[in-house]
């Protein structure tokens, strides 16, 4: 079966959304780091309702988790491509994968800072 590009605007966008949802489901159901990060996101959403955070805190919290999950998704894609291209250990591939993982660490650190700024004052 050969791929046929859908040139119509509406059905083409629907198919793109379908592929995106399929990819998100694959990430959440197969990648342990995404499972953990999604669980933390759900807990933070529950905490947001419990503590009645304001709309700006909601915006920051949602943006932080969107950033983490987006960067983690790109990291996973980089790792899968690298493993496909060079399945055995290779120093340069390892370097690339480490850099991608570092990007996730930056995003996760920022998200943790946002959560601390929102929730620590609620406990004090």
TrEMBL record:
ATP binds at residues 31, 79, 88-90, 97-98. Keywords: ATP-binding, Cell membrane, Kinase, Lipid biosynthesis, Lipid metabolism, Magnesium, Membrane, Metal-binding, Nucleotide-binding, Phospholipid biosynthesis, Phospholipid metabolism, Transferase, Transmembrane, Transmembrane helix. The keyword Nucleotide-binding applies. The active site is at 72 (proton acceptor). A divalent metal cation binds at residues 31, 79. Its cofactor is Mg(2+). One of its GO terms (molecular function) is kinase activity. Substrate binds at residue 72. One of its GO terms (cellular component) is plasma membrane. Mn(2+), Zn(2+), Cd(2+) and Co(2+) support activity to lesser extents. Pfam families: DAGK_prokar. Its main location: membrane. The chain crosses the membrane at residues 34-53, 99-120. It is a multi-pass membrane protein. It is found in: Cell membrane. The keyword Coiled coil does not apply. GO terms for biological process: phospholipid biosynthetic process. Belongs to the bacterial diacylglycerol kinase family. This is Diacylglycerol kinase family protein.
């Amino acid at each position: 079966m050969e791929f046929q590009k859908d040139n119509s605007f509406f059905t083409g966008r629907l198919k793109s959304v379908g592929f995106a949802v399929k990819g998100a489901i694959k990430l959440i159901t197969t990648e342990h780091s995404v499972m953990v990060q999604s669980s933390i996101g759900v807990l933070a959403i529950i905490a947001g309702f419990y503590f009645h955070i304001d709309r700006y805190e909601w915006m920051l919290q949602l943006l932080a988790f969107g950033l983490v999950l987006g960067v983690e998704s790109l990291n996973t894609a980089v790792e899968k491509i690298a493993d496909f291209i060079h399945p055995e250990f290779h120093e340069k591939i390892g370097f690339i994968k480490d850099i991608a993982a570092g990007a996730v660490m930056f995003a996760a650190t920022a998200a943790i800072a946002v959560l601390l700024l929102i929730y620590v004052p609620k406990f004090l």
